[in-house]
Write a structure and sequence with these properties.
288 residues; alpha/beta; 7-stranded mixed sheet; disordered N terminus
Length: 288
C-alpha cells in the first residue's frame, strides 16, 4: 500500500496534480461535506482514481461494474432513439457519426452494440454525447469560446462537443479523483482546446463562460452544493444547457435541490423543454 501511495504521488505530480495525490482515500467530496449524490460514494471516485493511475485498469474502465452504474449505462433502446434523432433531426450519415464518435469507440474499452441503421458496433454512451452536442450546436452555433461542465465523467462530452464546435477553453468541474481520470482520458485524445480540471473548492473566483453544461450531475446535488456552483459558475454564464433528472420538485433519490420554478427565477431567460429522447419521466432540459 505504501508503495502504491508513493507511485500515486509521483504520477500525480507528473500530471500536474501533486497536491491532489496527497489527499486521503475517501476525502473525495467536492466540498468536504458528506454528499449524497449518486456519484458521491467511496466506490466510484476511488475506482476513477485507480483508472487514472493504472494503465491496465484504464484500458478497460468503461466496462467495470464499479463504473458503469454512473456512466456507460445507456440502454440499447435509448441508443436507437438517439440514433433516430441524430439522423432525422440533424441529417448525419453513418460515416459522419463514426468519424465524430471515433475517440469514444476505443479508449477505455466501452461495450458496443449493433443497431439497425449502422453497419458497425457503437458505444451507446457515445451516441448520447453526440446528440447532446448536436443539440447544443443547434442552439449556440458552431463557436463557443469558453465552456464549463459540471460533472464530467471521463470527459467524453467535451471530446464530442469539440469535434462539432470551435472551443478555446474547457473547464472540467468534478471530484478530484474523477478529474484525474478526465485528465488521463483527455491526454489520450487529439484535442484542440486548452483545459482545466477543478473541484468546487479550487474555484477561487467566479468563472465566466460562454456555455455551462451538465448531463444530470447538477440535478443530483443537494441544494447546499448547487448554490455555490450557481454563484461561482452558472449565474455568470451567457448560455446554459443542463439536463435534469430531479423533476419539477427538484428531488433526486431523496436529495433535495432547487426545484424547476426556482431555477427559472434564478436564471435569466431560462427555458424548460422536454428531454429528447425522454430517458425518465422526471427529466427535463433547462437552457438559456
Amino acid at each position: 500500500m505504501f508503495l502504491f501511495e508513493k507511485l500515486k504521488v509521483k504520477l500525480a505530480k507528473k500530471l500536474g496534480l501533486g497536491s491532489l495525490a496527497r489527499k486521503k482515500a475517501g476525502n473525495y467530496s467536492i466540498t468536504g461535506a458528506n454528499l449524497k449524490a449518486a456519484s458521491d460514494n467511496n466506490i466510484y471516485p476511488e475506482y476513477a482514481l485507480k483508472a487514472a493511475l493504472d494503465l491496465r485498469t484504464f484500458s478497460n474502465f468503461r466496462q467495470n461494474p464499479h463504473y458503469t452504474p454512473i456512466l456507460e449505462h445507456v440502454r440499447k433502446a435509448q441508443a436507437l432513439a438517439y440514433l433516430d434523432l441524430i439522423k432525422n433531426e440533424h441529417g448525419m450519415s453513418a460515416p459522419d457519426i463514426l468519424e465524430i464518435i471515433e475517440p469514444l469507440q476505443q479508449i477505455g474499452n466501452p461495450k458496443k452494440v449493433m443497431l439497425d441503421g449502422l453497419d458497425f458496433p457503437v458505444s451507446t454512451t457515445a451516441l448520447r454525447y453526440l446528440y447532446v452536442a448536436l443539440d447544443i450546436r443547434q442552439r449556440c452555433g458552431d463557436r463557443v469560446p469558453v465552456v464549463a461542465e459540471i460533472g464530467c465523467g471521463y470527459g467524453g462530452q467535451a471530446v464530442i462537443l469539440s469535434r462539432l464546435i470551435d472551443i478555446d477553453k474547457y473547464y472540467f468541474l468534478d471530484l478530484w479523483q474523477v478529474n484525474m481520470l478526465i485528465q488521463r482520458f483527455i491526454e489520450s485524445v487529439d484535442i484542440n482546446f486548452a483545459y482545466e480540471t477543478l473541484t468546487l473548492k479550487q474555484i477561487e473566483k467566479e468563472i465566466r463562460s460562454d456555455l455551462i453544461i451538465s448531463n444530470y450531475a447538477f440535478s443530483e446535488l443537494p441544494r447546499k452544493i448547487q448554490q455555490p456552483y450557481f454563484d461561482k459558475i452558472i449565474k455568470s454564464s451567457d448560455h446554459g444547457y443542463m439536463t435534469m433528472n430531479s423533476g419539477v420538485d427538484g428531488v433526486y433519490e431523496g436529495v433535495a435541490g432547487f426545484d424547476q420554478r426556482e431555477l427559472q427565477s434564478m436564471i435569466k431567460n431560462a427555458v424548460v423543454t422536454e428531454e429528447k429522447p425522454n430517458t425518465s419521466e422526471k427529466n427535463y432540459i433547462i437552457s438559456w
